[in-house]
Amino acid sequence: MVTDLISTVNNQLLCLLQLAFAPVGAYSYSEGIESLVETGAIDSEITLRNWLENSLQFGAVRVEAAVVVRALRAAQRGDVTALSYWNAWATAAKETEELRLQSWQMGRTLVRLLLDLREAKLSRRESPVSSVLTTIVKDFVECGGNPCNFAIGFGIAAANWQIEEEVAVLGYLYSWAANLASAGVKLIPLGQTAGQQLLLDLRSQISCTAREVLQLEDDDLGSCSWGLGLASMAHETQYTRLFRS
């Protein structure tokens, strides 16, 4: 039994790592950091860390992580109506066109990747990723799930791979932080060691935010993300850009 438990935990860990770093194009987005570097609001490891810490404490990523939890639960129940509701809610919560298009592109890519992985396994006559995944996704799309937000796709994937809620939220928040830390390393610029130190410094806040997100009721979902909105709007008209947001 101990061996089986270890095997299950290891399998979930591997699934989480694959999901958190799935090739969905996250590297092409900076979520406003590029415009903040342009104006000098972010110009060092310290200012970048402050921005990311404040985002984890008060910003939109908290709401997105909460949507991941709700999508995961809905997918576990096969509740397509709830998935569609939270997908529409997540779209409405996006403050700028860039952030909305980013979420849609990454969500669409992730769902397509999941289905492609399942088809590849079936073609080799291996056990499918999930016997109900295709049905849930197709019903979700028909019920208004197209385009699909990334947080929704992440929750569906976590449910499909039987990843626990807290672990899924930690993975979502860490992948977000790692992507933006990487953007900061390129833009400021910083050394790779500084980028890794930044992620180490953010561990405590990521864990704290994950715990808080799991306790949020639906009526508590909200954020103070006007800084992100202004940075994203400025980026839409920025003359020279490396990133798509």
Notable characteristics:
mainly alpha; 11 helices; about 0% strand
The proportion of strand residues reads under 5%
Helix content: over 70%
Q: Total strand count, please? A: 0
Basic shape: globular
Number of helices: 11
N→C terminal distance: 48 Å
How big is the Rg?
Answer: 18 Å
Q: Biggest sheet: strands, sense, closure? A: none
Give the mean pLDDT.
87
Unreliable runs: 125-129
Structural class: mainly alpha
Order of helices and strands: HHHHHHHHHHH
Question: Helix and strand layout, with pairings?
Answer:
Blueprint: H1 2-20, H2 33-39, H3 45-58, H4 60-77, H5 80-93, H6 97-123, H7 133-142, H8 150-160, H9 165-187, H10 192-215, H11 226-236
Structural account:
The chain has 245 residues and is an all-alpha fold. It is 73% helix and 0% strand. It has 11 helices and no strands. It has helices spanning 2-20, 33-39, 45-58, 60-77, 80-93, 97-123, 133-142, 150-160, 165-187, 192-215, 226-236.
In short:
This protein is mainly alpha-helical. The chain has helices at residues 2-20, 33-39, 45-58, 60-77, 80-93, 97-123, 133-142, 150-160, 165-187, 192-215, 226-236.
